[in-house]
Design goal:
heterodimer, A: alpha/beta, Rossmann fold, 8 strands, about 45% helix, about 10% strand, B: Porin, 16-stranded antiparallel beta barrel, 3 helices, 16 strands, elongated
Amino acid sequence: MKRMLITLLLLLTVIPSLSAADSKIKVLTTTEDLRSIAEYIGGGKVAVDSIAKGSQDPHYVEAKPSYMMKAKSADLFIRIGLELEIGYEELIIDGSRNQKIRIGQPGHLDVSKGISPLELPIAKIDRSMGDVHPMGNPHYWLDPENAKIIARNIADRLSELSPQDAGYFSKNLESFNDRMNKKMVEWKEKMAPLRGQKISVYHRSWPYFAERFGLVVACELEPKPGIPPSPGHLKDVIDIIKRDKIKIILMEVFYDEKPARFVAVQTGAEVVVVPNSVGGTREAADYFSLIDTIIGKITAGFQAPRKE
Amino acid sequence: MNRSLLLFIMILLTLPLITADAMGSDVAQVQAELTALRAQFNEMKVNYEARINQLETKIVDLTRTYSVKAAEPQVSAPAQTSSLGRYFQSFNPDVSVIGDFVYHGTDQKGTEFRNQFQMRQTELAFSASIDPYARGDFFFHVEQEDGDWHIGLCEGYVTLLSLPIDGLQAKAGKFKVDFGKANKLHLHNLPWVDYPSMVTHYFGGEGMSEPGVSASYLIPNPWDKFIELTAQVVNNRNGTSFAGTSGKDLVYVGHIKNFFDINEESTVELGSSIATGSNNEGHGRYGKNMTTLEGIDLTYKWRPLQKGLYRSLKFQNELLFSQRDRPYLDDGTDITDSKRIDSWGEYSSLEYQFAKQWTTFGRYDFAEFPGDSKQRDNAYSLGLTFAQSEYCFWRLQFKHTNRNYSKDSNEIWLQCDFGLGPHRAHQY
């Protein structure tokens, strides 16, 4: 009897400490960019985890059961949307059995709300076009101005979930926007000399970034989105790069460098390998350093001496 | 006079010093002012550009609120043709058609479609949310049997997603029973051309799929690991291990799935399964003859984070044990002879993806028969898959089978699977 009482007392003391640990809003994001922004806005009031890692291709993430366990305890699920996560999101949410984070619930946030998507198909699309996205190109997070919209969406939803902390979140949002505005000046200054320059890319993931900083994407190494480069297509790419005197081939860390290196040898262009997501390389530790890294590598690529 | 002269000289001497000094201080002052001005200008520039950026954000915000407001009253008329199409289609289920086409060459006589082409199966898949609480999935198979085309329901079930008990999910309808790994897969999802003999000998040609109910529960645990317990009750109509088409009772199935992340790149899944039911229609004169199957499955998967598009490995193993009470003899005389048949089967499969579109694989099969443990076969398979895209693959497989009850055989397949429509993403 005495022992039972002690166990009961012990249990009673454990329970409050458990619930105290749980007072943070548990956020699960699909990508590390969202994790970085959610951490900035949520600060000490949130505990954020991410499904995809920055060095991974965000299109091909497998719905591992361990992700379902992460989703099971989440209060808020945040996705990029525009069907970027179509390959795994539904399986993870269904598998988690977590009602709070189902689509349409307050615990499910699509941060593409308010974004102006690029490459919206204007006619019927089909798979002969490769991996085209019916709702527009989903790589919008690579435009820092869109990061502000993402941050706003996250702040709004966190405030909805925890109204008593709304002031805290909006202060963090303000600081995020201030910092972003200052960084924007720096980034634009660095990219100013490259305005109007043509670039070649591996995958169609750079239209938002290119539009913001005045670059022009002249050609893609993939013949169609998601379709691996073929020798015939690479020949066309080489011709375009030579004709337009394109200086760089921009590609993400997770693609095969071989086709890009082949084109580089044929044309003298510089292969610029960059992370397209936070955590893609060590330097890209948060959203700001991600853009720093991308811009740093692109400008360095343009300055590299041409190897003829 | 002398004094004034001295003073004059002193002044003359200091003058250059003073002027030099004054001039020096002038330059320094101008320089300082210039730096200050420059700093001021830079600061102004940063401030103005920051302000411009702020204004840009405001414009974006304003257009956003404006567009939201503008969109509100006219939800029914989206601007884009594609989204209009999507809007009208959004209440239709996702419809997919998947074709499985093979050429089967074999030295085993009597095989249907021997050394011929065959449209082995066409799967029609429909899936959609039914309401906020449930999802529905249907899989129809069209196959050719004795020259005629038949359509059959492979699976058709409702999944209840929101049950009052946290972590519980339930299924009702006809579905592939949760025994091991390979039994649950459809033909086009297999990493090989054919099912392992462990599946075909114990569950029949395409595995065991029966009408019934299923409940699965995520067991809470202090390590936050994925431990899923599934319990199913289905009709006893499987003829390979159980009572067959005239079965009048039920089969009980249980499965535990444990999943561990070794690191970000490798995972291990360890599962155990059990299925039990009568094998003599459940109403024999001398009591029930039971069959019990136990299974263990172990799968190791590796996929590097950064180069995951180009490399991966999967090592999958399953082991199955069967205890089958020998069917009674109807005249009742031989009842003392009734005894249990213990048999087993297994397979081991290794798949290695060595390029974005290429995977090679090998599989070893061993299986006895549930009704006769003295008859057994083992087989070695080797193959190569070329994934043209996510929706179409080509596969070449060679298989050599040793049998102790009939002739050994060699088989070769060329398979092409192709899918239309948004077939639901596959389970990990």
